[in-house]
């Protein structure tokens, strides 16, 4: 009896490994080639100036930033807007840009990390990645120390630094798949 029972368990194990292997293959075969790359068809029009859009209200949401729920990041104003599904701004805040900017386009959040060490050696939290440029991953993060110091311009970094409070808000809002619109 013990011999037939162990054969049955071994057979179930082989079947389970085969099923998991098949599902893993299917998942890897269905990953889009453009994951983490800008969606050119949905790109907002890029502005030619690096000045705020509205001189009377520099915190105003840029007009060419799309519609619906989204994160909007202006590389020219160094500002982020968290926009609800109704189109209303839930929160806006200043950020410290990375050494390498993302190209103006529409992206999706591709990965998140609760706590890691940044490419500059700084302990960071609430990392929300959405793009890459020149082989560098780009995303929002907050330094655990609370610092928002500008990065070394000679370093190839993609961390857009925000305060810890703003990092908490971004973490809660920008889950995997969330739309991120980058404007100039």
Automatic annotation (TrEMBL):
Keyword Signal: yes
Segments of this protein annotated with the region Disordered: 33-69
Residues annotated as signal peptide: 1-29
Domain of life: Bacteria
Ranges of Low complexity composition bias in the record: 38-50
Keyword vocabulary terms for this entry: Signal
Protein name per Swiss-Prot or TrEMBL: L,D-transpeptidase
């Amino acid at each position: 009896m013990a011999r037939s029972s162990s054969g049955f368990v071994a057979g179930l194990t082989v079947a389970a490994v085969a099923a998991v292997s098949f599902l893993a293959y299917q998942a890897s075969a269905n990953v889009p080639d453009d994951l983490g790359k800008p969606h050119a068809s949905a790109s907002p029009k890029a502005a030619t100036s690096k000045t705020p859009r509205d001189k009377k209200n520099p915190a105003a949401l840029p007009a060419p930033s799309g519609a619906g729920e989204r994160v909007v990041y202006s590389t020219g104003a160094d500002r982020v807007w968290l926009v609800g599904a109704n189109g209303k701004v839930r929160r806006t805040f200043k950020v410290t840009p990375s050494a390498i900017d993302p190209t103006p386009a529409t992206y999706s959040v591709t990965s998140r990390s609760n706590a890691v060490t940044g490419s500059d050696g700084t302990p960071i939290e609430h990392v929300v990645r959405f793009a890459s440029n020149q082989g560098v991953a780009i995303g929002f993060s907050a330094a655990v120390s609370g610092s928002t110091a500008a990065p070394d311009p000679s370093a190839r970094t993609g961390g857009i630094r925000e305060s810890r409070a703003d990092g908490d808000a971004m973490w809660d809002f920008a889950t995997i798949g969330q739309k991120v619109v980058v404007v100039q």
